[in-house]
């Protein structure tokens, strides 16, 4: 995987780059994850979001367990070449493992993080199959 477009990305010391997934219609930020070269190349090839799981140390095809696949609509690289922005269609409307639309469901209120977005589906019914 030595395509010139992959070489332009500024990978961190672990060979990773942060990737932001954004809803292609609303523009809402759904989640942030990490990609290595293989994940980014496969994302482009398969037209679906594929990340690198740092905790599991393996490729993670978003939705492989939950069914909540992210279909790729557009991919962008920021001005410093060190952040990827994925414009996606979030199948099933749930991006977060907590069963919410977005991983960014907490807001700071009176010096306390408060969940302000509803759980759309109980995560136990998503992952405990």
Automatic annotation (TrEMBL):
Enumerate the HAMAP family for this protein. HisI (MF_01021)
One GO biological process term is: L-histidine biosynthetic process
Specify the enzyme's EC class, one word.
Answer: hydrolase
Q: What is this protein called?
A: Phosphoribosyl-AMP cyclohydrolase
Sorted alphabetically, which Pfam families does this protein's record hold?
PRA-CH
Superkingdom, according to UniProt?
A: Bacteria
The reaction(s) annotated as catalysed by this protein in its Swiss-Prot or TrEMBL entry are: 1-(5-phospho-beta-D-ribosyl)-ATP + H2O = 1-(5-phospho-beta-D-ribosyl)-5'-AMP + diphosphate + H(+); 1-(5-phospho-beta-D-ribosyl)-5'-AMP + H2O = 1-(5-phospho-beta-D-ribosyl)-5-[(5-phospho-beta-D-ribosylamino)methylideneamino]imidazole-4-carboxamide
Cofactor note from UniProt?
Binds 1 zinc ion per subunit.
How this chain assembles, per its entry, is: Homodimer.
The entry's function note states: Catalyzes the hydrolysis of the adenine ring of phosphoribosyl-AMP.
Q: Where is the Phosphoribosyl-AMP cyclohydrolase domain?
A: 31-105
Subcellular location per UniProt equals: Cytoplasm
User: Keyword Hydrolase on this protein?
Assistant: yes
The GO molecular function terms of this record are:
magnesium ion binding; phosphoribosyl-AMP cyclohydrolase activity; phosphoribosyl-ATP diphosphatase activity; zinc ion binding
């Amino acid at each position: 995987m030595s395509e010139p477009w992959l070489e332009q990305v500024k990978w961190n010391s672990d060979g990773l780059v942060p990737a932001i997934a954004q809803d292609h219609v609303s523009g809402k930020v759904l989640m942030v994850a990490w990609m290595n070269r293989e994940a980014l190349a496969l994302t482009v090839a398969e037209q679906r979001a594929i990340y690198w799981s740092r905790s599991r140390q393996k490729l993670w095809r978003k939705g492989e367990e939950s069914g909540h696949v992210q279909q790729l609509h557009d991919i962008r690289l920021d001005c410093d070449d060190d952040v990827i922005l994925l414009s996606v269609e979030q199948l099933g409307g749930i991006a977060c493992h907590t069963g919410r639309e977005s991983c960014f469901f907490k807001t700071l209120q009176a010096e306390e993080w408060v969940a302000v977005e509803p759980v759309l589906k109980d995560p136990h019914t998503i992952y405990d199959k």
